Fold this sequence. Notes:
The chain is an alpha+beta fold. The chain has three domains: about 120 residues, Wheat Germ Agglutinin (Isolectin 2), domain 1 (2-Layer Sandwich), CATH 3.30.60; about 120 residues, 3-Layer(aba) Sandwich (Aminopeptidase), CATH 3.40.630; about 70 residues, Orthogonal Bundle (Arc Repressor Mutant, subunit A), CATH 1.10.10. Helix content is about 35%, strand content about 15%. Strands 5-6-7-8-9 form a five-stranded antiparallel β-sheet, with helices on both faces. The longest helix has 21 residues. The radius of gyration is 22 Å and the shape is globular. This is histone acetyltransferase. InterPro entries: Acyl_CoA_acyltransferase, HAT_MYST-type, MYST_HAT, WH-like_DNA-bd_sf. It comes from Saccharomyces kudriavzevii (strain ATCC MYA-4449 / AS 2.2408 / CBS 8840 / NBRC 1802 / NCYC 2889).
Amino acid sequence: MAGSVGQSLRATTQRLKGKKNGGKGKNKSSKKARKEMLYGILNEKNIKQIQFGVSKRFPTWYGSAVYFDPETKRLGCSESKSQLCSNFNDQYWLETLFVCEYCFKYTDNRARFVVHAAVCPFQYRAPGKIKYKSPEYTIRRVKGSKYQLFCQCLCLFTKLFLDNKSMYFKVDHYEFYIVYENGSAKPMGFFSKDLVSYQQNNLACVLTFPPYQRRGLGLLLIEFSYKLSQLEGVISGPEVPLSPFGLIGYLKYWSQILCWHLIEGDLAHCDKVSLEDLSIVTGMRVSDIILTLKHLNCIGENNQIYLQSLSTWLKSHGTKGNWFKLQDEYLLIDD
Ligand SMILES: CC(=O)SCCNC(=O)CCNC(=O)[C@H](O)C(C)(C)COP(=O)(O)OP(=O)(O)OC[C@H]1O[C@@H](n2cnc3c(N)ncnc32)[C@H](O)[C@@H]1OP(=O)(O)O
């Protein structure tokens, strides 16, 4: 399993490079096919389900061609012939993709998966450096340049749950912030950060793995991304476009932050608050603030903010004293 993944990724990259050079002058449809191959774009799901570690199984949300050889539709350089699409079901290329829940290496072969699961070194030591450690959760920073294969496999996995992002192989200038439950080396979710983002985005892509969703981890990661950009002294926000779930999650986070600053925080006693004031205290972009205030139905002509509508939102989405997921005292940001 371990060797096959590295070879598979190299083979895919080589194949794509080769096709790119040899494809000059060919028609538009082959260009489109190459693009789809490069970004793994598929209109339908091609892997039915994921076996994530030995005990978790769940369906994929989106298709991805990047795991496969485009000609044979077989997984990377797998020697297994047991799960070809023709043997299974025309809709799917593969019924079950076995993914290591510690390092994201993958295979279509159960026996190889079981062997790997028993020896994966990441189960004893998670990669990267701890940047946040509360009594409940740890967030580790994993550099793409240092843990290339780990990050590439994580990006491939992400594509199965996020349709509009497509970065798999060039991970060198990305950092990955991965959340773990304390005492466990099993990643539960992550966000990536582009270190050469011209828009100075504080987050490229965020994912909570399906078994761990709706526990507040998405909001924790988003809050952490803002903490990092505020420490850098940058007004920032996520890379766009947001996915539908991304938008719901961000609107929740942004609504809470704006409500807190306007009702309980530094701005609560100001007579007049401008969008720029809000941007400075929250670290949010003005465009995101306007979007959120419109969502909260509390911005009028001349960008006047109606606090009454904020209070109404708060009543229906009460945070019960838990305004923030992240606690500053547990931050370990030294570089
Ligand atoms: C810039 C970008 O990367 S955009 C791409 C965003 N990522 C994706 O779309 C990948 C797939 N989706 C996911 O991984 C997750 O849904 C995330 C990351 C967006 C949210 O992760 P979670 O850990 O589930 O979020 P969390 O538990 O903090 O919930 C935050 C809020 O989002 C909303 N929300 C999250 N999931 C759902 C859902 N399935 N249905 C309705 N609302 C939801 C809720 O308001 C929720 O708060 P609540 O539970 O108190 O009601």
